Amino acid sequence: MHFNDELNKMKNIYLGMIFLCILISPGLAENNITWQGEPPRIEEIYDFATTDYLRSIGEEASDAIRLNTLGLNAYKQNNLLKAAKLWRCAVLKKDNYHWAHYNYACALALFAESFSINPAEHEDDYQYAGGDDLVLLYWYTEKVFYHLKKSIDLSPPLFNRMQEDGDLDIIRDMAHYKFMLLYPENDTVKLFNSIKQWPGSDTGVYPDGGYASINGNKITISVVIISFDDTEKIEINSFEKTGTFAITGEKIKVFIDSPEKEVLEGEVTVELDEFGFVVCVYFNIAGRYYCNYDPNIGGT
């Protein structure tokens, strides 16, 4: 009996410690600060001389947990740039520390908000656009997704926290974020419905246009064919086909109702990143490819 009493006491202490750890979680507080002014340039965040930076603030010997805590303090004091640098340093000190990756992702997302540009509206072209702001915005969102996924891979409960964290609102409308929400099952039908319009991806100097539009199990295939005659006169022909589709494994079958009944068959390809999240989905119907934007997410 005495042994059981001691065991129960130890159990209660242990549960109390777990509850306390939840209360003092080293993640960001819910005060959702904003970055004022121009977004920092890449070199200000990436900090090519990390050791020198830590030495300049007297923290070169600090471990990742302390650096993360210092970052939280800076964040609460509205010093987001310092917080981001400290979390970047914490990531480099200990790559498997989930809070460092998560908090760093949140800081970069807050910087991305200051562009006053919705990245979801440029998701298929902003890394190629050439404008400085769009190129930098691409860099920010690329790193946000990488460090979010890394943190979730290290600590799965952060998947739920991510969905409620106001610091990450800038990425909510992006296709890549919508794909993240389907993790880990990555159901193919849900993937299809998370992207409403799929550009056609024919190749060539003058590629054919077109897209596939999906709503529920309904699909509209719009095709634009650009051709040239002997005098190099451009001729454009377009048509639409509507119907329903069904997916079984890696196969897709489209039942066209209009303009005339026919059945088209093809294949579906889903590409996952190193953490098991979807980054690209495309399908082939009647020799034509349709693909969502592939963000080609990079590393740290």
Q: Which features would summarize this protein structure in a list?
A:
300 residues; alpha+beta; Lipocalin; eight-stranded antiparallel β-sheet; disordered C terminus
Mind explaining what this structure looks like?
It is a single chain. With 300 residues, the chain is an alpha+beta fold. It has two domains: 27-173, no CATH class; 190-291, Lipocalin. 40% of the residues lie in helices and 22% in strands. It is built from ten helices and eight strands. Strands 1-2-3-4-5-6-7-8 form an eight-stranded antiparallel sheet. Helix 4 packs antiparallel against helix 5 and helix 5 runs antiparallel to helix 6 (98-113). Residues 13-24, 203-207 and 294-299 have low confidence and may be disordered.
